[in-house]
Amino acid sequence: MHELSIANAIVEGVAEKAARCGITRVAAVHLSLGPLSGVVRDALLFAWPLAAEGTVAEGAPLVVADAPVTIFCSHCQAVTSPRSWRELVCSACGSAAGRVASGTELEVTAFEVDDDEPATVG
């Protein structure tokens, strides 16, 4: 289950940023996850509490937002959502897609702190 190592990396990144900002406890971590990221959402959510244990993120939920799959069509230059992420065909002109524009994300978009938590942003 490589999701545990991914959860560990997320916790490390959040802990580093929190330390730079003077934050001692994180209330929630927000993540954007695309279906083409290669990460199994449920496995990541299962691994999260194990990775967060004993860190500034212990007890903080991992809030996962689904990133949409979009494709850039090299034929018509459109960025569209494919009919299916398994079949990357331009929904504007029907051509085979040139490249995936989004849907591979695995990105921490934010983390929350409690109101009483002192922080220096920057």
Characterization of this structure:
It is a single chain. The chain has a domain of 76 residues: 2-Layer Sandwich (hypothetical protein PF0899 fold). The protein is elongated and about 50 Å long. It is of the alpha+beta class and 122 residues long. The longest helix is centred in the N-terminal third of the chain and has 18 residues. It contains 2 helices and 6 strands, in the order H-E-H-E-E-E-E-E. Strands 2-1-6 form a 3-stranded mixed β-sheet, covered by helices on one side. 25% of the residues lie in helices and 22% in strands.
Mean pLDDT: 91
Strand content: 15-25%
Tell me the name of the CATH class of the domain at 3-68 and 103-112.
Alpha Beta
The geometry reads as: elongated
**How are the strands of the biggest sheet laid out side by side?**
2-1-6
Number of E-type strands: 6
CATH third-level topology of the domain at 3-68 and 103-112: hypothetical protein PF0899 fold
Please state the structural category. Answer: alpha+beta
What is the string of SSEs from the N terminus onward? Answer: HEHEEEEE
Characterize the largest beta sheet: strand count, sense, and whether it forms a barrel.
Answer: 3 strands, mixed
Q: Percent helix among the residues?
A: 10-25%
> Any low-confidence stretches, pLDDT <50, length ≥5?
none
End-to-end separation in angstroms reads: 35 Å
User: What is the number of helices?
Assistant: 2
Round the Cα radius of gyration to an integer and report it. Answer: 18 Å
The second-level CATH architecture of the domain at 3-68 and 103-112 is 2-Layer Sandwich
